[in-house]
Design goal:
The structure holds two protein chains of two kinds. Chain A has twelve helices and two strands, in the order αααββααααααααα. Chain A is mostly helical. Chain A starts with 5 loop residues before the first helix and ends with a helix. The chains are: A mainly alpha, B mainly alpha. The interface between A and B is large, with 98 and 111 residues.
């Protein structure tokens, strides 16, 4: 930036001392400006195109799934059981299994993650322990899902002798959700204005009273947003569920029963290629669920932003 | 990740029963009345607060415990690699044949690297440009459309991407370049779409955290928008963007289901863009259902390798953002 006029100066040097008149200078300046404007417009156009490609990819994928899957969606498809080798019929048990395992994972992960975030944001002094915890959370968030799946298999199923079940899958999934919820909650708590805490302390509240009755309620909308996004992640997770929940089609009642999630169902249908129609339908249902969750998160955020 | 938020000092919020209370300034200027402060709350309340603190700490430790347990268990299951297969044979072997008990993972490492680098080469520029567009160029209306779209793209499960790859991209690649359509090229296309939202969202965070003032200063000196982006904004957000790309790389290396469905799954060395290969992740899934003994050990060894790679990437991001803060 500092050398913006270096080209002009050099041009003038080339032209010699006699050329320091206005016309030469103006000419150089105009040429430079033209060049700059051209570069600017080209670059901005490229950025527009890049953003366009990203959106086009999204629209392409969504349209593809919707167009192929929409004819499949009917009460019969949603509410009946699949039967036969080619999984004709519906996907009802897989929907229930998915919701079951996600809900269970949520119940396990949420209290731990929220309290951990409370510790990090409200109680902990910045120091080595906090650094270690943050690093661990970041690492946990980046563990490849297949590694998480193998861990779930080796730890919950084999070492703890839990059956391939909702519970094993939920425990493994909760490890996956933990860092997501933790980060969202910590950011939410940090966004709570400090004077609100002071007001609470000024009234003689203890720290727990302040956290539980003032800070957490204030941070709740953003925490819920984080929860919903973590749920979306868990619903679409395949590799983890594959090794901890199995793939038997089953309607789970107790947490110790196995089942097949929608994502696993879609994977099996797509790989076998026997019943692509049902695969499209399942993909659409899966995306619809995640889309609705995203919309819900967005709605909560917008609604509470208006209030404050 | 650390580019996404800036930790605030928390000293003023800490309150332990025997500590200085929420207002350390006050506590420091006046003589400390420790005992007086303690008598303000009952003994029971003190114990309760103490217990809760311990509970919160225990919850926070769960994350650490989780990571340690994951590594310990995967490594434990993989420890047979050393006596049974031989570490050198495992890590430098180029032949993978279960029938002949040959477990060399080089083809899969090469496969993972090829797939990841290709996906990054396509996805990262696209994502960074999308982030630049969102943060620097787009008006509020374009932003309101494109940003949710990018977030939605991040929410699509990887099986759906894989399914899309199998039914759309693979036949297309087969028609254009020959072969069956399953191979690195297909994986590049699908994976690059998958990592765009990760990189774009994190890069945008980094770009948004740059103060408006330096852009204004640049414009005030007569710079065009592109000059401002290229010479002022990008250098300032450099570390945040590198972080984003590294995390996108982690996503690509660890991606399992989508890659499994489109990469062709042949345990052989990378030989061409349309020849089927296998990656670390896809080979684990393929073998795991019937693996036993040394075979299983080798698969867990590959999982341990993946874990270490992803840890290294997180570590690099951490170190980068630390040097970024100091520099």
């Amino acid at each position: 930036m500092r050398d913006m006029f270096s080209e002009d100066r050099e041009r003038l040097k080339e032209l010699g001392p006699g050329a320091m008149d206005k016309t030469a200078r103006n000419e150089a300046k105009r040429a430079r400006l033209l060049k700059e404007r051209l570069a600017n417009n080209t670059a901005l156009a490229v950025l527009w195109v890049a953003a366009g490609i990203t959106v086009a990819a999204l629209i392409l994928i969504i349209l593809y799934v919707v167009i192929n899957g929409a004819p499949m969606i009917s009460p019969k498809f949603i509410f009946t059981w699949p039967h036969g080798v080619s999984a004709k019929g519906g996907i009802w048990p897989t929907i229930i299994s998915t919701l079951y395992v996600t809900g269970l994972a949520m119940l396990i992960a949420t209290p731990v993650a929220v309290l951990a975030a409370v510790y990090l944001a409200e109680y902990a002094k910045q120091g080595r322990i906090v650094t270690v915890i943050r690093f661990a959370a970041d690492s946990l968030a980046s563990v490849p899902s297949i590694v998480m799946g193998l861990f779930g298999l080796a730890f919950f199923v084999e070492a703890f002798h839990l059956p391939m079940s909702m519970l094993s899958a939920a425990l493994a999934l909760s490890l996956l959700m933990l860092p997501i919820i933790m980060r969202a909650t910590e950011e939410a708590i940090r966004a709570v204005p400090r004077y609100i805490r002071w007001g609470s302390y000024g009234l003689g509240a203890t720290q727990w009273q302040t956290v539980s009755r003032v800070v957490l309620p204030w941070a709740m909308p953003r925490i819920i947003t984080g929860l919903v996004l973590a749920m979306g992640r868990a619903i679409g997770e395949t590799a983890v569920v594959f090794y901890t929940m199995g793939m038997a089609i089953n309607m789970p009642l107790t947490p110790l029963e196995s089942g097949r999630s929608m994502a696993v169902h879609l994977y099996l249908l797509a790989v076998d290629g026997i019943n692509l129609k049902a695969a499209y339908g399942t993909a659409l249902m899966l995306m619809l669920m995640i889309f609705l969750l995203n919309m819900f998160a967005r709605y909560i955020q917008r609604r509470y932003r208006k209030v404050r | 990740m650390s580019a996404a938020y800036t930790p605030q000092p928390l000293t003023q919020q800490t309150l332990h029963p025997e500590d200085e209370g929420p207002f350390p300034d006050l506590a420091q200027t006046q003589p400390r009345h420790k005992t007086a402060a303690l008598t303000l709350v009952s003994r029971a309340t003190q114990i309760k607060e103490r217990g809760l603190l311990l509970l919160f700490f225990a919850c926070a430790i769960v994350a650490v415990l989780g990571v340690v347990l994951i590594f310990a268990f995967v490594a434990y299951q993989a420890s047979g690699v050393f006596p049974n297969i031989g570490f050198l044979k495992f890590i430098t072997g180029t032949k993978w044949s279960v029938a002949h008990s040959q477990f060399g993972v080089v083809p899969f490492i090469v496969g993972s690297v090829v797939v990841t680098i290709g996906a990054l080469a396509i996805g990262a520029p696209l994502a960074i440009m999308t982030a630049l567009f969102l943060s620097e160029v787009a008006g509020p209306r374009a932003r309101a459309v494109i940003r949710p779209a990018v977030e939605l793209l991040a929410g699509i499960p990887s099986v759906v991407y894989g399914f899309f790859g199998v039914t759309v991209v693979a036949p297309l690649v087969a028609r254009l370049f020959g072969g069956a359509g399953f191979g690195p090229l297909t994986a590049w296309i699908v994976l690059s779409i998958m990592i765009v939202p990760t990189i774009a969202m994190l890069s945008e965070d980094a770009l948004d955290s740059i103060p408006m003032g330096i852009r204004e200063a640049s414009f005030a000196m007569g710079a065009t928008q592109w000059q401002t982006i290229y010479k002022v904004v990008l250098p300032a957000a450099k570390i945040g963007i590198i972080d984003a790309v590294i995390l996108g790389m982690g996503r690509a290396i660890g991606e399992t289901m989508a890659v499994l469905m489109i990469v062709g799954n042949a345990p052989q060395m990378f030989a061409g863009l349309t020849k089927p290969i296998a990656t670390l992740t896809s080979q684990i899934v393929l073998g795991m259902s019937y693996a036993a003994d040394d075979f299983r050990t080798a698969l867990f060894g590959m999982a341990a390798l993946l874990f270490l790679i992803s840890m290294c990437l997180v570590l690099i991001v951490r170190l980068l953002s630390r040097t970024g803060k100091e520099g």
